[in-house]
Design a protein that fits this description.
The complex is a heterodimer of chains A (526) and B (458). Chain A is an alpha/beta fold. In chain A, 62% of the residues lie in helices and 7% in strands. Chain A contains 25 helices and 5 strands. A 5-stranded mixed sheet of chain A has the order 2-1-3-5-4, sandwiched between helices. Chain A is globular. The termini of chain A are far apart. By secondary structure, chain B is α/β, with parallel strands linked by helices. Chain B has 2 domains: 39-412, Alkaline Phosphatase, subunit A (3-Layer(aba) Sandwich); 415-457. Chain B is built from 16 helices and 14 strands. The radius of gyration of chain B is 32 Å and the shape is globular. Chain B starts with a helix and ends with a helix. Mean pLDDT of chain B is 87; it is low at 1-31. The chains are: A alpha/beta (526), B alpha/beta (458). At the A-B interface, α6, α10, α11, α13 and α14 of A face α12, α15 and α16 of B.
Chain lengths: 526, 458
């Protein structure tokens, strides 16, 4: 009996279970503690200041859809149930909203999904490259700004990435065991990915490429067919609910609109936005690892690489671009970056061949730099934006919730507001529970989101008492000076009186803090 | 002569002293002017020339047009045909005669069958009097009735035109001459505004497109009677023209919005919507839109929670109404007029059958602010407090739609399908994944290194 066993016997003399627990080998205990710490960190950074700022426009729309499914009064008449996407996340949110609509609860659900993704990355990394890679990959994803920011918001991309990463895990499991049950389960995972967000279906391209170019992975055609059928079965709720629940026309309109809508960003949007959010160091290490460990290449890297290449190529070609669209590539990048760090440091220390150096210290140094870099970037990203400029999907809109709450309290029911654009209209509709229209919404049905109502003649609508409030906001004004000016013209023409000004505190270059008006609500009457 | 001098001296003395005393008494009285109900602001809009049946004759649940109504074209010819009420739609309307003489001929001592004949004899289109508007023509008013209170037993105070009815509205009396403005004005007939002024209770008479130079004194120079003078009785009282304390309270309608914005809406507001009148040949839509704007502004203000808004019509305008008005004295009542009450305390979708007339408005003011009756009529008139429900908390302001069209319903999907489809999918996924997870198997290698070794070896 060694020293530790003797010690535990002394501490727990009559309890064999506790003795067993205490005597568990150090590695297992360390692993449990590490995973717990990583998960806690993932949860902590996602929860910190989670509800400081209200919803952005996309969050308002998805939460509005969930409220419509849950038949929440007023909101169900403002927000349509069916829009472009399937309803898996909104369905889960609706279950939550049956107990009361809360933006915090909705975001906590998104956070839970984000933390679950971190755990699956740990499992996937462990499965592919061992326990240490799994833990490090989970740690990287836990603090990666890209995943942190998106998984703090009520967006569909977080749940989609959870499901796609689960699919990746199931595929890896199949590749390792050859047991067809995992391939069937991967079909289920891919179906769930689609139900979370339909764009996830493009990852079928990654699966196909992986199997087609991996001679070492044997796949029976009947297993592929079963897997495909299971995926289709999982996807079925989308068309079934559209058809049976009465939303097929809306769905078709969205499809047409999505196919033919104009590009919303320049071609280099992802190139200039995403690498920084994933972490430049993460990408460099991942690529370096692939090159340095070329000799050890197996199907594992192929699987992860296809999971990156297919979405990147697809969304680069696809005219419509969005900040969070490439989130599915974050988990494979985290694993690919962890692999060389762990592998290389375990083999040797090439920098100090003549001067032996503890690999533990190098591990701590490199890992520490990587994690601190990511953590600080995440911290900077989740801090409330006070500049008035923001990219859609990167966070909430300061002042939007407060303005909406003011509207709910002070604006008569059935009143109609006119905002510069639909983004602010969505936010005010969710929090204000009043109808809001966007001045910039095109009267041409081909150039507008089918769920939006255009204002063909705002002048007439004000004269005939159909619109009673005009709302100017600095975010929309920053993006469209033309429509901002048009709105202010209407304010002047109809003797608009500012009845509410929403301010946010901003810090100037000299460090002084000032209250900056971001949303102004004008009352107008003919 | 001596007496005249004394009288003149006294007059001058009192004309100087009274305002001073008046202002003293006002400030003294202000402390005890708390209303007896939660209504701190009463706004009364008096429109022109429509009957209840003309506007709400087909309103469900109200005492509207009886099904078998058919009014003879001629009373002198027993074989003459009759005309049933018909929807006016786009037919042009004219200003039908509505003097006391016409009233008597239409009233026919309670037979109520002379509406067409009386007008035909004046070479007017008597058949038009049987026309009515419905929810498609005056949707906003019908929507207000759906949400607030519609009075279907409210009569004009006098069986004549605007001037006398409006005198009843402000003073509870008919005035000196029947439906005429005397050359010397209405003299010293007390009005509700005198009483309010004495008590220091705020009031205003808002006139849209107000021209301060137009009053009864101007009539000598004019060969017509301008609507402002005809419909704003206070402009025919010397004291309301000469006393700055009083005349300053007759203001342009634009001040209504300023008062709402500044929180200075008076306790009692009378409103004359010149230029937005519903007096035929004007389109009822004009007045309706003005009322909508007024109400929306009221709802947007802090005053809403303690307000009552009453819309009524001075006289019947020659139109048909099937209810014989009770004759309470030699002046009236006249035929029923449409009346709506909008207030956060008003009952919802309520049709009030209480017998009322314009002096019921005075009754409400007098009872709410503890003012003694002005005249016999208002002393005896019924109150319309049954239209309120002061036991409930005030209703939140909700804009009323200006159309009767039910908006195209948003597709309200069968939510059970969504719950069932996605719920079943989740259950199915858990079953398959659960089965996979519980499968006993051995990996190609227990660790990455072992697996890598095995894979690279193979």
């Amino acid at each position: 009996m060694n020293l530790r066993e003797r010690l535990t016997q002394r501490i727990f003399p009559k309890n064999p279970t506790l003795v067993q627990w205490w005597s568990r080998d150090r590695e297992t205990t360390a692993r449990l503690i590490s995973v717990t710490l990583v998960m806690s960190l993932a949860a902590g950074i996602r929860i910190w200041g989670l509800n400081q700022i209200g919803f952005n426009t996309d969050e308002a729309v998805y939460s509005g859809q969930a409220a419509a499914i849950a038949q929440i009064p007023v909101l169900k008449d403002i927000f349509p149930v069916f829009r472009a996407h399937p309803l898996l996340f909104q369905f889960l949110l609706a279950l939550l909203f049956n107990f009361g609509v809360s933006d915090l609860a909705a975001r906590l659900l998104a956070v839970a999904i984000g933390v679950a993704t971190v755990f699956i990355v740990y499992r996937l990394g462990s499965l592919l490259y061992g326990e240490y890679v799994g833990i490090l990959a989970a740690l990287i994803l836990a603090v990666m700004p890209y995943h942190v920011v998106v998984s703090r918001q009520v967006l569909l991309d977080g749940p989609m990435v959870l499901c796609s990463t689960l699919t990746l895990y199931l595929l890896a499991r199949y590749a390792l065991t050859g047991n067809p049950i995992w391939l069937h389960a991967a079909g289920i995972g891919m179906g769930l990915t689609f139900l979370a967000k339909e764009t996830g279906i493009i990852l079928i391209g990654a699966v196909y490429s992986f199997f087609a170019l991996s001679r070492d992975i044997f796949v029976r055609i009947q297993d592929l067919i079963i897997s495909f059928v299971l995926m289709v079965l999982m996807i079925l709720p989308f068309p079934i609910s559209l058809w049976l629940a009465g939303g097929s026309k809306v769905g078709q309109q969205y499809l047409i609109w999505q196919l033919f809508r104009r590009p919303n960003h320049t071609w280099d949007f992802y190139l200039t936005t995403v690498p920084e959010q994933i972490g430049i160091l993460v990408i460099i290490i991942a690529i370096a690892g692939l090159l340095l460990l070329w000799g050890e290449r197996t199907w594992r890297e192929r699987l992860l690489l296809w999971w990156i290449i297919v979405p990147v190529v697809f969304f680069q070609i696809w005219p419509t671009k969005g900040y969070q669209y490439l989130l599915a590539i974050a988990p494979p990048f985290a694993i690919l970056a962890s692999r060389p760090l762990i592998r290389w440091l375990w083999i040797e220390n090439p920098l100090s061949r003549n001067k032996p150096m503890s690999t533990t210290w190098i591990r701590a140094l490199v890992g520490g730099i990587l994690i601190i870099t990511l953590l600080s970037a995440s911290w900077m990203t989740i801090k409330p934006a006070t500049t008035g400029a923001f990219v859609a999907g990167t966070g909430g809109v300061p002042g939007g919730r407060e303005a909406g709450e003011w509207i709910q309290e002070h604006v008569p029911g059935e009143a109609t507001l006119l905002t510069i654009g639909p983004s602010m209209a969505n936010i005010l509709q969710f929090y204000g529970q009043r109808k809001a229209l966007g001045l910039s919404i095109s009267p041409n049905p081909l150039h507008r989101n089918p769920s939006y109502e255009s204002v063909n003649n705002p002048d007439s609508d004000i004269r005939t008492n159909h619109i009673q409030y005009l709302v100017w906001d600095s975010y929309s004004a920053g993006r469209s000076i033309f429509f901002s000016d048009r709105l202010l013209e209407l304010v002047a023409r109809f003797n608009g009186r500012a009845v509410h000004t929403q301010t946010v505190t901003v810090t100037l270059e000299d460090g002084t803090k000032v209250d900056k008006p971001v949303i102004i609500i004008y009352m107008v009457h003919p | 002569m001596k007496h005249i001098k004394l009288f003149t001296s006294l007059l001058i003395f009192f004309s100087v002293v009274t305002p001073v005393l008046g202002s003293t008494s006002v400030s003294a009285a202000q402390s005890g002017n708390t209303p007896k109900t939660p209504i701190e602001h009463l706004i009364v809009v008096m429109q022109q020339n429509h009957t209840f049946d003309n506007y709400f004759g087909t309103y469900p649940g109200a005492n509207g047009l009886p099904k078998d109504t058919c009014i003879p074209v001629s009373l002198s010819d027993p074989k003459a045909s009759c005309v049933s009420p018909f929807k006016i739609t786009n037919e042009p309307i004219t200003d039908l005669s509505h003097s006391d003489v016409i009233f008597a001929k239409q009233f026919q001592s309670g037979k109520m069958n002379g509406f067409i004949d009386a007008l035909n004899k004046l070479n007017q289109n008597g058949t038009l009097s049987m026309g009515y508007f419905d929810d498609q023509d005056i949707p906003y008013y019908w929507n207000l009735a759906d949400q607030y209170v519609l009075f279907d037993n409210y009569f004009s105070s006098a069986h004549t035109g605007s001037i006398t009815n409006r005198m009843f509205w402000v003073s509870g009396r008919a005035g000196r001459e029947f439906n005429r403005i005397p050359e010397e004005g209405f003299g010293n007939i007390p009005t509700i505004f005198d009483k309010l002024q004495e008590r220091g209770i705020s009031w205003k008479f808002y006139i849209r497109n107000y021209d301060p130079s137009l009053n009864y004194r101007k009539l000598k120079e004019l060969d017509y009677l301008p609507p402002q003078i005809q419909w704003a009785p206070l402009l025919s009282f010397d004291r309301f023209l000469d006393d700055p304390e009083l005349s300053s309270r007759i203001v342009d309608f634009s001040e209504y919005y300023k008062d709402l914005e500044n929180g200075t809406l008076p306790a009692v507001s009378y409103v004359l919507l010149l230029g937005a009148t519903e007096h035929p040949i004007s389109d009822p839509g004009l007045g309706m839109k003005a009322t909508q704007t007024m109400l929306q502004s009221l709802m947007q203000s802090d005053s809403w929670k303690s307000s009552a808004f009453l819309l009524t019509y001075d006289d019947w305008g020659g139109w048909y109404d099937h209810v014989p008005p009770p004759q309470v004295d030699e002046r009236g009542y006249g035929f029923r007029v449409p009346t709506l009450l909008v207030s956060p305390y008003a009952r919802q979708g309520y049709i009030d059958h209480t017998l009322l007339d314009h002096t019921s408005i005075l009754k409400f003011i007098e009872e709410n602010w503890d003012i003694p009756p002005l005249a016999e009529r208002d002393a005896k008139s019924n109150r319309f407090t049954s239209a309120f429900d002061f036991s409930s908390s005030p209703r939140l302001p909700v804009f009323i739609s200006p159309t009767r069209e039910v908006p195209e319903p948003r597709i309200q999907p069968r939510r059970i399908v969504i719950y069932a489809a996605y719920g079943a999918a989740m259950l199915f996924a858990f079953m398959i994944l659960g089965r996979a997870v519980t499968t006993k198997e051995k990996l190609h290698g227990s660790s990455y290194d072992t697996a890598l070794h095995e894979e690279t070896k193979s």
